[in-house]
Amino acid sequence: MIINKWWRHDPHERYWLEITNREDIGTNLLAPQTNDRGEEYWSYTLVREVRPGDLVLHWDKNHGPGVVGYSHVRGEAFASTIVWQSRGTYGRQRGASGPEPAWEAPLGGYRELERPVTQARLREIESTIRALRDYLTEAVVGPLYFPFALSEKRPLRTAQGYLTKLPRTVVEALPELRELRQTAVSEPHEPEVPDLSPASLPKQRSPTGYGRQKDVQRRRAVERYAMDLVLSHYRSHGYEVQDVGAHSPWDVTARKNGAEVHIEVKGSTVTREVIDLTEGEVRHAEGIPTCLVVIDQIELGDDLRCHGGRWRSWSDWSPSRGELVATAYRYPLPAGGQEGRPPV
Questions:
Q1: From CA 81, how far away is CA 325, in angstroms rounded?
Q2: pTM of this prediction?
Q3: What is the spatial distance between Cα 324 and Cα 320, in angstroms, rounded to a whole number?
Q4: Do the Cβ atoms of 273 and 179 come closer than 8 Å?
Q5: In the CATH scheme, what is the code of domain 209-317?
Q6: Quick one: which of 36, 118, 293, 336 has the fewest CB in 10 Å?
Q7: What is the pLDDT of residue 86?
Q8: What is the pLDDT of residues 311-342, one digit of tens each?
Q9: All structural domains of the chain with their residue ranges
Q10: Range 137-148 burial, b when 16+ CB lie within 10 A, else e
């Protein structure tokens, strides 16, 4: 089956919606390769299209119903097997099958949402979701694989299927999913979360060198402000403090009465539910007790002066590898590259 990969040119389109009644949500994506009639079905075939680092939201039919959590894709989809029974009338008559060919994609880092996005909540913003669908319908040639069925006769409900493509604009319309939006950003520097609201859809941005330089200056000002706050806080409580971030995989060393504390500091102008970590920061926190301090909601003026901010801290912090989501790659260059300017 040929899938209309309308999202492939937009790196922000990393969201999917699994619609399920399974009890082991977040383990994997798993769907038969064909439906009850032996035909390929778009909602099953979509499992082949997910990529490592994509985010899968889970719609639980048993509880809510609604979106109860999310996972990230840990590897490429592969051929597998499944024992299942369709929920449709034909499937109930047919009975459970033996092992049959399936598509499977591994998931990891399952997290429950603090505020599930219920069907009732989505119906509250049905007009917005309808407008987003209509915009995409005009902008995209071919099927959208949209996650919700919308009609004039019935209120919003999920599409008839297993896996659907969840447009980024729908995620942007729900404040409850801020954590996902921040997780999916490929380069979440200042400004950290791009404007993907419906009103911004037709607009095209033209980044300039000046804009990039301005962002670097803003980011450094925020980072320096957060560091100075932490240094001052520990110093006021009798610690001898040292800024070691330039040469160590943590930011601050604080010593008092023979004890030493390693501190990782993150600063942000927005409300942060997700932070960026380097491999060095992760490995250090895995091996040595570390305190994580996050100061977000920092106010930054045009003159790059900062003030305010909300403090949160985690003592004895160690990040779980299963919850880390890849947002960048380090790629070893292959041999044989041609020296000099490319031929034209």
A1: 27
A2: 0.78
A3: 7
A4: yes
A5: 3.40.1350.10
A6: 336
A7: 58
A8: 999 999 999 888 888 877 788 888 888 888 78
A9: 15-200, 209-317
A10: eeeeeeebbbbb
CA distance 288 to 233: 22
Amino acid at 242: Q
User: Which residue in 228, 70, 197, 186 sits closest to 132, CA to CA?
Assistant: 197
**CA–CA distance, 73 with 28 (Å, rounded to integer):** 8
Which of 316, 313, 228, 224 is CA-nearest to residue 275?
313
**Mean pLDDT for all residues in the chain:** 87
**Pairing label, strands 55-60, 28-32:** unpaired
